[in-house]
Q: What sequence folds into this?
């Protein structure tokens, strides 16, 4: 492959990068000081009286300072490729020198936020499985240069020998407007509503704190109290509120889905997937098949009805799993054939899908029933003592069957299938999550057994992978030991690299 | 080296139920007792001080219950540790290391050598008095839950570490 750029000497990013860094800095500044800015704009007339020239001078100084900083950041950001290492020098005051061996690089992603889209540059981020400090983002590269860099890195490492970025190749998944609409319609709206309120609550608390410090807390509290009083008196109001909530839930699902997954298209290549998506920030993710630790295929009854599901790819992470949510790569709105294609391309699934479902022992159901019903009893006893009346007990007619229904659903979804090389674990209540794992990718294995489980001859089995734990609760001890031994055998005799 | 640990070779399917687990060092009992007392005595002193100087009469009348509650907690904690001690066992095989523990919740963990990222030995202050150390093994991913063996002699810890290091680089 003749490459116009060879990166053997230290190179800087495109000079347009100064602008990208500058706008980034500005955005960050605004994000931190947004409330202050609102106050300034509100009382601008007062500032004018005090002397507008000083204000403009100050503002100019800040802007100039940021510009100089952006320039210096650009000037000091240099990278090159040497001996199968990506080498980066950066830092204005604190100089850092990073070298990443190619085989450690997990994927190379292209990203474009609005500004980068306008000035036609790409952000290239290089992800590793190591700590987050070694994650590198080159803010502005031209498309040809970005592609060249990706090619060099992927060509020289053991993966991607034939990394042909063929723009004419057809995507195997393309999610258009209509499909995306379907996806957002069938989202878990309840969850989105909670998310929305969590954000709102955080926002409200922030405002309250600031208002509080300004000594205006009473008026705001009074306002909200007046509102809540009218809520409790009017049924119509509650009805309207309910409708509003539903609309909010739907809207927040739409906004979220459209922002992240707009124009989603996925390409299947010999040893990797390429996924493009995003509305404001366009993102291109290249995912090496070998580095995928496990995949989860999820659906819920609504999605099933329209025949779609979403796939989550999990890669190796280090440190705390939760902090790296962004490492979860998701393709939403896959049709059945597309799901099959993805599974097929990663591993052979026929055998595992046709093998026998093995459910958790009855102990699992008994424990769920025991725990939920004892909690329910405690709740109702406490309620009884607080309310001191018995009418609310009628709600049990609804609550008990509902809980039973949920538990039966949960137990039914809790099963696993195992073959010589693959493990399939299913879980969920309404949603169904099927996790496919190649057994040799297990990092370590654990059996956990309480004394109650011991009496029923069952045990929990926990398989630790580089992308998190997979738990199979309360299965028969003989089966657990068989899986335990088999997993160890597979891991210890495998010659294939797990990432 | 290999003879020292009497490793069981993994030629066919390894069987976890047939491994001979080794107990941790007897001296670790003393380490546990000392650290347990070190943790509990500040609480006791605090309680006595509160009793003498801070608590009003109403609480003082019921002091007997508070003290007995404290003693029950103390005895329970101690018994849990003492009875749990013989349950802590480890084993090395040709290709993996295993650790068992737990009185009420029994755990068995096995880490294959081929997945180990690094091995660490620690000599904590009290353990060092009795010539003991701990051995931790880390794998990729969420490393909070990997394998740690407390209470083996420093020599054993170093030998295991050396053994694993050789195995990793094979």
A:
């Amino acid at each position: 492959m003749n490459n116009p750029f060879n990166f053997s000497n230290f190179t800087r990013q495109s000079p347009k990068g100064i602008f990208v860094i500058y706008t980034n800095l500005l955005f960050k500044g605004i994000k931190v000081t947004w409330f202050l800015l609102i106050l300034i704009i509100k009382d601008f007339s007062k500032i004018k009286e005090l002397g507008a020239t000083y204000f403009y001078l100050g503002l100019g100084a800040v802007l100039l300072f940021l510009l100089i900083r952006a320039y210096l950041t650009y000037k000091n950001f240099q990278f090159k490729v040497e001996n199968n290492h990506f080498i980066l020098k950066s830092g204005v005051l604190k100089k850092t020198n990073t070298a990443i061996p190619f085989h450690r690089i997990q994927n190379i992603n292209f990203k474009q936020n609005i500004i980068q889209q306008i000035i036609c540059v790409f952000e290239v981020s290089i992800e590793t499985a190591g700590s987050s400090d070694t994650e590198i983002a080159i803010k502005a590269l031209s498309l040809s240069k970005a592609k060249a860099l990706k090619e060099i890195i992927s060509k020289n490492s053991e993966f991607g020998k034939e990394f042909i970025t063929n723009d004419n190749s057809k995507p195997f998944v393309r999610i258009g407007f209509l499909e995306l609409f379907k996806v957002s319609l069938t989202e878990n709206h309840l969850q989105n509503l909670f998310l929305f309120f969590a954000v709102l609550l955080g926002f409200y608390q922030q405002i309250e704190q600031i208002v509080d410090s300004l000594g205006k807390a009473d008026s705001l509290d009074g306002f909200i109290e007046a509102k809540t009083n009218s809520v409790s008196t009017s049924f119509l109001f509650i009805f309207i509120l309910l409708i509003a909530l539903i609309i909010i839930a739907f809207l927040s699902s739409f906004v979220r889905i459209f922002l992240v997954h707009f124009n989603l298209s996925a390409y299947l290549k010999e040893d990797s997937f390429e996924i493009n998506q995003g509305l404001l920030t366009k993102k291109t993710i290249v995912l090496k098949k070998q580095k995928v630790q496990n995949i989860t295929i999820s659906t819920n009854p609504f999605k099933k009805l329209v025949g779609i599901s979403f796939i989550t790819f999990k890669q190796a992470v280090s440190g705390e799993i939760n902090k790296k949510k962004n490492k979860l790569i998701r393709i939403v709105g896959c049709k059945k054939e597309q799901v099959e294609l993805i599974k097929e391309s990663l591993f052979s699934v026929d055998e595992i899908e046709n093998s026998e479902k093995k459910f958790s022992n009855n102990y699992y159901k008994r424990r769920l029933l025991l725990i939920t019903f004892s909690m329910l009893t405690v709740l109702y006893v406490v309620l009884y003592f607080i309310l001191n009346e018995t009418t609310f007990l009628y709600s049990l007619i609804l609550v008990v069957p509902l809980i039973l229904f949920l538990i039966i659903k949960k137990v039914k979804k809790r099963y696993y299938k195992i073959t010589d090389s693959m493990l399939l674990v299913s879980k969920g209540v309404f949603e169904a999550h099927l996790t496919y794992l190649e057994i040799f990718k297990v990092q370590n294995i654990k059996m956990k057994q309480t004394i109650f489980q011991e009496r029923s001859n069952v045990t929990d089995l926990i398989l630790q992978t580089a992308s998190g734990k997979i738990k199979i609760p309360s299965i028969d001890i003989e089966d657990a030991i068989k899986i335990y031994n088999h997993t160890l055998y597979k891991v210890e005799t495998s010659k294939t690299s797990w990432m | 080296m290999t003879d020292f640990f009497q490793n069981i070779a993994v030629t066919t399917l390894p069987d976890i139920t047939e491994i001979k687990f080794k107990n941790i060092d007897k001296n670790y009992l003393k380490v546990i007792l000392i650290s347990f007392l070190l943790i509990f005595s500040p609480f006791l002193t605090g309680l006595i001080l509160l009793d003498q100087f801070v608590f009003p009469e109403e609480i003082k009348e019921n002091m007997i219950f508070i003290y007995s509650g404290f003693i029950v907690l103390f005895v329970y904690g101690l018994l849990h540790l003492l009875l749990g001690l013989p349950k802590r066992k480890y084993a090395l095989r040709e290709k993996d290391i295993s650790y068992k523990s737990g009185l009420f919740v029994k755990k068995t963990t096995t880490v294959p050598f081929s997945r180990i990222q690094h091995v660490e030995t620690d000599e904590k202050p009290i353990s060092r008095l009795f010539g003991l150390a701990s051995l931790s093994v880390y794998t990729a991913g969420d490393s909070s839950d990997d394998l740690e063996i407390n209470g083996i002699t420093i020599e054993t810890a170093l030998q295991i570490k050396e053994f694993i290091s050789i195995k990793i680089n094979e």
Remarks:
- The first helix of chain B runs from residue 2 to 5.
- Chain B has two domains: 2-23+89-169, 29-84.
